[in-house]
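A reminder from the course coordinator: this example appears on the midterm review sheet, so study it carefully.

Given structure:
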């Protein structure tokens, strides 16, 4: 770790281990006009927020600690406080993560990536290589972890860059190398917005909106908002990076590299076919209720039966179960996803989700969220739906630059809902906007693990990441506000 990195890490540890107890004490001793449970919970949340921001201890353990403290301080009984850990969306996380693990384990994502890069006319032009590479990254990230997508695509980008540099030299391609590698991180974060399972903040926001407003956000409805935003942002990011890293018209050797890599993948394996079947059936069942609603209307008995029988969490578990049923070698008793691989999913996100939802739910039940919303509404003076959508998006985006996107969603979405309620506005759209804003944050290496991975290559100047990232943050805010405000009332009401 560099000397500057060591100082930053030390400051974050100090903020967590010293600042969190001080924040707890300060809020505990302050004479707030709140009911006693709400006051005690406010002290707990002050400490939790600082621990999340500083990451002094793992964020999942902070979530556990916050819920446990709420029980110890008699904010709520244990059965009530820990109930959100059994929320159906927790099982949507688990099932989706197992499907993603199978995709990664069998190399299905890599096969898809090289299929995109191998499209006719792509491999011999640096600009088209950039667009196809970023497009493949974006598409994969709609379905599996943003970080896993970058971990898989980043070496492919480095290989492409190495072939180009053999002909033109590293110095000549410095700008192109910067934008190609940046496109990996940016496209992965953008793609995560497209589906509810694309990134954890999406499911966190969906959970808060459903629990606090009673409005479900079906898979199809989310995609009706998320996909247009993805298309707008991906087009903007690609054009911006293409312009910033312009190079020659030919990219001799890239086509041969891609062809060799595709050939090395060999024929489709049983594991890849099985994974594709399980994943395809899962997505079809996720999308089917929305299609029925468009065709027959949400009042049709078939739509109601589908949503009651096949909620997203149940579908995800059924799809994941297929991975343990479809065999790859019957004689050896081998199935598509070995249990040793299945347990490698991101359990910490599952735990963080449960803890965040639990604390947010307690904030509403104790009246803390309502009090916070009324106070902020009076202070900020924003009372229109459009204004609240914009405010929620901006706050979530700013917070996501210095804090984990998952933690940002846990902190901002409940506040956005409370703000909307205190202003007399339907909280669904501000809640969705805050959720999407939490997945932005493109400016700094610490903003997302995706940024950190590509910055670690040493090929991306910090000034370039900040310049391009700021432009993409602004474009993201505009796109989210415009799409949520214009399409949200049609899709979600």
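Designed residues:
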């Amino acid at each position: 770790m560099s000397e500057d990195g060591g100082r930053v890490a030390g400051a974050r540890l100090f903020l967590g281990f010293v600042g969190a107890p001080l924040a707890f004490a300060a809020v505990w001793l302050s004479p707030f006009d709140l009911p006693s449970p709400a006051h005690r919970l406010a002290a707990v949340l002050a400490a939790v927020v600082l621990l999340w921001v500083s990451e002094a201890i793992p964020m999942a353990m902070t979530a556990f600690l916050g819920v446990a403290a709420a029980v110890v301080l008699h904010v709520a009984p244990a059965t009530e406080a820990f109930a959100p850990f059994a929320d159906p969306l927790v099982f949507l996380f688990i099932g989706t993560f197992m499907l993603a693990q199978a995709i990664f384990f069998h190399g299905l994502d890599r096969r898809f990536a090289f299929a995109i890069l191998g499209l006719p006319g792509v491999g011999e032009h640096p600009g088209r290589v950039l667009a196809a590479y970023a497009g493949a990254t974006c598409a994969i990230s709609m379905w599996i972890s943003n970080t896993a997508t970058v971990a898989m695509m980043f070496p492919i980008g480095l290989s492409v860059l190495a072939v180009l540099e053999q002909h033109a030299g590293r110095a000549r391609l410095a700008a192109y190398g910067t934008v190609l590698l940046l496109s990996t991180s940016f496209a992965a974060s953008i793609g995560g917005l497209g589906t509810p399972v694309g990134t954890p903040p999406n499911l966190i926001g969906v959970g808060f909106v459903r629990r606090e407003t009673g409005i479900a956000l079906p898979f199809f409805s989310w995609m009706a908002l998320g996909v247009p935003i993805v298309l707008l942002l991906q087009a903007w990011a690609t054009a911006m990076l293409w312009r910033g890293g312009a190079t020659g018209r030919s990219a001799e050797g890239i086509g041969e590299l891609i062809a060799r890599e595709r050939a090395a993948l060999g024929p489709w394996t049983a594991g890849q076919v099985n994974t594709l079947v399980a994943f395809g059936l899962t997505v079809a069942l996720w999308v089917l209720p929305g299609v029925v609603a468009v065709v027959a209307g949400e009042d049709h008995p078939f739509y109601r039966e589908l949503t009651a029988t096949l909620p997203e969490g149940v579908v995800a578990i059924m799809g994941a179960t297929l991975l343990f049923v479809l065999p790859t070698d019957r004689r050896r008793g081998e199935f598509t996803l070995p249990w040793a691989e299945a347990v490698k999913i991101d359990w910490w996100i599952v735990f963080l989700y449960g803890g965040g939802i639990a604390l947010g739910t307690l904030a509403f039940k104790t009246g803390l969220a309502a009090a916070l919303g009324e106070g902020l509404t009076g202070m900020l003076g924003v009372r229109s739906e459009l204004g609240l959508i914009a405010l929620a998006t901006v706050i979530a985006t700013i917070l996501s630059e210095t804090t984990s996107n998952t933690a940002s969603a846990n902190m901002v979405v409940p506040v956005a809902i409370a703000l909307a309620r205190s202003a007399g506005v339907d909280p669904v759209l501000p809640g969705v906007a805050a959720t999407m804003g939490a997945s932005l944050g493109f400016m700094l290496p610490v903003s997302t693990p995706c940024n950190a991975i590509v910055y670690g290559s040493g090929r991306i100047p910090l000034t370039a990441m900040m310049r391009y990232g700021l432009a993409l943050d602004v474009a993201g805010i505009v796109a989210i506000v415009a799409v949520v405000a214009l399409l949200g009332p049609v899709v979600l009401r």
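The longest helix spans residues 462-492. Strands lie at 327-329, 334-335.
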